[in-house]
Every structure is written in C-alpha cells, then in structure tokens.
Design brief:
Length: 469
C-alpha cells in the first residue's frame, strides 16, 4: 500500500475533550462540565448543536481547552437515513492537530461507526502527489473494539489505493502483485493462470477479452487456510476498459482505471477478514480475472461467438460489455467447488448508476433471508446497499438467436438486471449466490470519504456473514 495505515491516538496521550452536542428546544444541550465561561463562549459563537457545527473552546492562556461538535437531533424510529453517514469524520477533518477524546456522548450515539469514519478521514492517496492527512487523532472510545476498526480501515485503504492507482501502474500484472502481497501477509496460497495457459486450462472468455493488451490476461486464485463453510469472492479485475473495438468516447473512458473496483473490494474484504482472524473459521477463496480491454489486431470483435468455461456459448454484441465475460469464466470455476456463499463484485453497468446513483450499490440475491441480512448489516454499519431482483421474465432478453447467451441485449432497458441474470447462468451449485454491481468511486468529497476510489459493500458482507454462513 502507498498510504500509511490509519491509527488511533495513544490512550495515554494528553487528549483534548471533544463534546458531542445535540440541539435542544431552548438552545444546544451543552455539558454541565463546560462551566460558565465555556457556555457563554459557545453562545457568543452561535453554536447551536447543528449537525457538523464545530466550536473551539479557548483557554484563559490563549490555547485550546477543547471543542464542541454538533451531531444534530437524535434519530427517531422511521427517520430517513442521515445525510452524512460519517458525520464525526467532519470533526476529524476540521479540528487542529493533536489528540482528542470524546466526552459527554448521548446514549444513542454510535461511537464505533463514528470512530471508523474518523479513521477513514485520515486517508490520503499520496503515491504521486504529497498531501497531508488530517492531524487530529482520536483516542478510541471506551467500549469500542479498536482492533476491529483498524482492520476495517486497512481493508478500505487497500481498496481505495488499488482503485486510485492508474492503469500505467495497475495493470493485470500489478493487480496480481497486489493480490500476492495480501496472500503473503496472511499466509494464503496463490495460483495464477496467465496468457495462452488460460486457453489450455479452459478459461476462453478471460483470454479473449484480455489478449489484445500489452500485459497478458490472467486468473488470480487465492485460498486462505481455514476450516468451515466455503466463502468464495469473485472480483472483476478489468484494469482499464477502452471499450474494445466498440470504443468508448473520451468522456466515458476517463474513469476506467476504476473498472477493477470489484477486484479491489474483494481483496480489501479478504484482508479485513484475515486481520480479524475470521478466515480460520471458513474456507475463503478469492478469484480475480485480471485483464485490460484493449484494441489491437487480435482483439475480440462484435459478432464473435465465444464458448465459455461452462460450455455455454455467448454472442458478443458489444465488446464494451466485457466484464460479465471474464466474470463468467471465474464464476464457473468457483461454482465447481460448490461454495456455501458465492459473491461477485463488479463495476459492471451504467444502468445500476442510473437507477440508484453512485452512493447506493444494488445487489441481487434469490434468498430473502440472505438479502435481509445483507441489507440490514449495510444500513447498520454505514455501508448502504439496496436489493434488486433477478427478474425471471427478462431471461429472454439475454438469449440471442445464434448462441446460448447475449452479452449486451439491445433495447436499453433493465441493463443491471440482465447483466445479473447473465452471471447467474454460471452459478448452479453454490448454495447462495449474491452479485454486487458497485461504482467504486466517490464523485465528490464527503466526511470520511475523499473524492476517489472507495469500498462499497465490504462491511455489509462482513457483518452479515454470521447470519448467512
């Protein structure tokens, strides 16, 4: 990783108090320990306890005695989700350097997610340009599992770093190196099949999509030592997507370094699971088809019919719908192992973004209990996701005239659903299959989420696993 890992302040540090304050009917609910001077100062500054409002408190000598931070009114049953999922991260980004400790929190304040957001706010991608991260460090609040939050932050940082790195330094070989680094850190086994060996080992669609690029296509296979139920994560690793011969316009190609966001997310999730020691109680496998969808004399063409690892034939009606092709071969391999839970993550369709925007990734799942566990865990852990259907009547849309499947149905409707239905055709033996169509990018800075690559769905999956496996 090019970014230093997040950290909490030393508990023994001489930390300044940060009071979390709510608004009240007769003014902000200021803490009694603030004293007359502090109370009058807060009033003079117009501090009202509004969400995100900050008020530094002075010492008589001219230094800083502490700070007040508004967290808005308490949430009520049935309230809409808060505008800022990591509101406390705003304090991390605006407070002066030094160590801070939270005092006077209300009983309904989620200190764990607040502290996690604070850690997320420390992230800065500095591989190519130096940028100083916020210098305010938080003492981990009492009762909060610091090791767990640091593991979550490490996985998030890894995903962000991988997505933010341009294709010049994050091609298929570089993505393999990143996967090997995760494996080495946690003692996992790695197998990689690359180049023409993909044909010899029956991964024809991964080979077809990636063969025109300067770096050979490859399938990366990580297995973590452990016993128990089988969890297999499959991440789309298209390191750059020109669109192939159906070339994208420049405006659509500008962010295509993030088209390996699915791979970044599954690696980040695997890293967190291993840091938490959870891989010992499961059989974790990570599969990443890593390619670049490039243009050359040997590029695959519109109208080609490819035969997949599963034996299903696929008519290529758009070379820019390549992600589902490489995922299909990887999913077929994963399915041969009959996992208990098979999850694919991919920056797959623009249709998903049209439906739900960049901040709310859809997921597809046939099992109501699994879907409820995932969506509930996402909402409870500031990692929102939204269920969409595998809509059976649309199956005919992915069945062309001359092959078993169509990689890009015409008509312009239900693109995220038809892509998910396509992938499901390659998962017949897994006990549960879930597909995430993520964006993997934060378009504008928000508390705890700077503009750039971002993890999506990782904490939802992590926290739902006890209810699924």
């Amino acid at each position: 990783m090019s970014t230093p890992l997040a950290e909490f302040a030393d508990p023994a540090a001489d930390a300044l108090p940060l009071w979390l304050v709510r608004p009240g009917k007769n003014g902000p609910d200021l803490p009694e320990g603030l004293g007359t001077t502090g109370t009058e100062w807060a009033k003079a500054q117009g501090f009202a306890g509004r969400a995100g409002q900050l008020c530094l408190l002075p010492q008589a000598s001219g230094g800083i005695a502490g700070a007040l931070f508004g967290i808005g009114p308490a949430a009520q049953p049935g309230d809409r989700p808060a505008r800022e999922r990591f509101l406390l991260a705003k304090a991390a980004e605006t407070l002066p350097k030094g160590s801070w400790r939270i005092v006077h929190p209300g009983g309904d304040v989620d200190l764990a997610n607040g502290a996690l957001g604070w850690l997320f706010a420390q992230y800065r991608f500095t591989r190519y340009k130096q940028g100083e991260a916020p210098g305010a460090r938080l003492v981990c609040p009492d009762g909060v599992d610091a090791d767990r939050l640091l593991a979550l932050a490490a996985g998030e940082y890894l995903a962000r770093d991988l997505i933010n790195t341009p294709a010049s330094d994050m091609g298929p070989a570089d993505l393999e190196a990143a996967a090997r680094a995760v494996a080495e850190r946690h003692g996992a086994e790695v197998m990689v099949i690359a180049g023409d060996d993909l044909l010899a080992r029956n991964f024809p669609m991964i080979h077809a999509v990636g063969r025109a690029a300067a770096q050979a296509p490859r399938l990366i296979d990580l297995r973590f030592a452990g016993d128990g139920p089988k969890l297999t994560l499959v991440g789309k690793g298209v390191c750059f997507d020109t669109g192939g011969l159906d070339i994208k316009p420049p405006a659509s190609m500008g962010l295509m370094k993030k088209d390996m966001g699915g791979a970044a997310n599954v690696l980040g999730l695997a890293d967190t699971l291993a840091r938490l020691g959870l891989t010992r109680g499961m059989q974790l496998r990570v599969l990443i088809p890593a390619v670049e969808n490039a243009i050359s004399a040997n590029a695959f063409r519109p109208g080609d019919v490819l035969t997949s690892r599963k034996g299903l034939t696929v008519e290529v009606n758009n070379t820019d719908a390549e992600g589902r092709l490489v995922l299909a071969d990887a999913l077929a391999l994963a399915d041969e192992d009959a996992p208990d839970l098979l999850i694919s993550m991919a920056t797959l369709t623009g249709a998903a973004r049209v439906a739900l925007g960049p901040d709310l990734p859809p997921f597809f799942c046939d099992d109501d209990a699994v879907a409820a566990a995932l969506q509930g865990a996402g909402m409870a852990n500031a990692d929102p996701i939204w269920r969409m259907p595998f809509w059976e009547p649309y199956e005919t849309m992915i069945e062309p005239a001359i092959a078993d499947l169509d990689n890009a149905p015409g008509g312009g409707f239900a693109g995220a659903i038809t892509a998910a239905l396509f992938l499901r055709r390659f998962t017949q033996t897994a006990r549960h299959y879930v597909h995430f169509d993520i964006y993997g990018w934060q378009p504008g800075a928000a508390p705890g989420r700077p503009k750039g690559g971002t993890g999506q769905g990782m904490r939802a999956i992590l926290n739902a696993l006890p209810d699924i496996l």
